[in-house]
Automatic annotation (TrEMBL):
Residues 1-11 have a biased composition (Low complexity). This is Pseudouridine synthase. It comes from the Bacteria. Residues 46-104 form the RNA-binding S4 domain. Keywords: Isomerase, RNA-binding. It catalyses: a uridine in RNA = a pseudouridine in RNA.
Length: 281
C-alpha cells in the first residue's frame, strides 16, 4: 500500500495555563477507610476499558457501554466496572469472543468523499465510510468525525487510546479546512477569529483564517483550528454571513490530504507515526 509522504510537523501547541488553587490543601487522614469501590493498582495493571481500547475493540466510551450492557466477560463472568484492573487481556471476551493482545498502533489516511456518514452503521440506510473503505483493512476507528457533506482527510486507527488522545482539545492537534463560500467577508473580519468567537452561547477557540481567493462574491477560505467542535467551521462562517457550498479537511496534525483520491486510503509509515506521537502532550 502506498504510504503518502508527510509534511513537516505542525507548530507545537502552547502549553495550557495553570490554575492555582488558593484553598489550603486537605491532608489525607491515615486512619480513614478506603472509599467504596476504590481499587488498589499494582505494578503493570491498567483499567480494562483502556486495555480494550488499545486493542482496537472500540473507543473507551463505547467499551464502557459494552460493560454496562454485560457484553464483556472475564473468565466467563461479566465484568461489572470499566475500572477493573488487569495486567493483560487474558481470559477477556466480548460478545463471547476472546480478545487478542493489542497489535501495534496503525494509522491510515482516508479521503472521505461527500455523502457518507462517519459512523459504523446508519439505521436509516444511509451510506457510511465503512461502505466505501477497502474490505482488506484491519478493524479501524475514525479519529474525530466529518459531517455527511464534508469531504477530505479522515484519520483511522486500530488503537482506541490513541484515538481518544488525538480527539482531546487539550492535545492541541491542528486541523485545517478549505471552504468554498458565497458572500462578502474581509480579511480583517477573518483575522478577528484568532481571538476566538462566541455564537449563540457556544465559545469557539482561536481560528487562523485566511481568504485565499475570490471571484465576484464566491471565494475560498482556509481555516486552521484545534478544538473541532460539532460543525464549527460551518457555524462560524455562517455567522459571518457566508453560505458554505463545499468543505474539505486538508490536514490533521502533520498529516496532509495531498493527492489522495476520494475513497482511497494510504497508511502512515510507522516511523512517521512514532515521531508524531513523541510530540503529543
Amino acid at each position: 500500500m502506498v504510504k503518502p509522504p508527510l509534511k513537516a510537523p505542525a507548530r507545537p501547541a502552547k502549553p495550557p495555563r495553570l490554575r492555582w488553587d488558593s484553598k489550603p490543601v486537605r491532608k489525607p487522614n491515615p486512619n480513614a477507610a478506603p472509599s467504596k469501590g476504590a481499587l488498589e493498582r499494582k505494578d503493570g495493571e491498567e483499567r480494562i476499558a483502556k486495555l480494550l481500547a488499545r486493542a482496537g475493540v472500540a473507543s473507551r466510551r463505547e467499551i464502557e457501554r459494552m460493560i454496562a450492557d454485560g457484553r464483556v466477560t472475564l473468565n466467563d463472568e461479566k465484568v461489572e466496572t470499566p475500572a477493573t484492573l488487569l495486567k493483560s487481556l487474558r481470559g477477556v471476551a466480548v460478545d463471547g469472543k476472546a480478545v487478542g493482545q493489542p497489535a501495534p498502533t496503525q494509522l491510515y489516511m482516508f479521503h472521505k468523499p461527500e455523502g457518507c456518514l462517519t459512523a459504523e452503521r446508519d439505521f436509516s440506510g444511509r451510506k457510511t465510510i465503512y461502505d466505501v473503505l477497502p474490505t482488506d483493512l484491519p478493524r479501524l476507528m475514525p479519529i474525530g468525525r466529518l459531517d455527511l457533506n464534508t469531504e477530505g482527510l479522515l484519520l483511522l486507527t486500530n488503537d482506541g487510546e490513541f484515538k481518544r488522545q488525538m480527539e482531546l482539545p487539550s492535545t492541541g492537534v491542528e486541523r485545517t479546512y478549505r471552504a468554498r463560500c458565497f458572500g462578502d467577508v474581509s480579511q480583517e473580519q477573518l483575522e478577528e477569529l484568532i481571538h476566538g468567537i462566541e455564537i449563540e452561547g457556544v465559545k469557539y477557540g482561536k481560528i487562523d483564517a485566511n481568504l485565499e481567493r475570490r471571484t465576484g462574491r464566491n471565494g475560498w477560505v482556509e481555516m486552521t483550528l484545534t478544538e473541532g467542535k460539532n460543525r464549527e467551521v460551518r457555524r462560524v462562517l455562517e455567522h459571518l454571513g457566508l453560505e458554505v457550498s463545499r468543505l474539505i479537511r486538508t490536514r490533521y496534525g502533520p498529516f496532509v490530504l495531498g493527492e489522495l483520491a476520494p475513497g482511497t486510503v494510504g497508511e502512515v509509515r510507522r516511523v512517521d507515526l512514532i515521531e508524531f506521537r513523541k510530540t503529543l502532550k
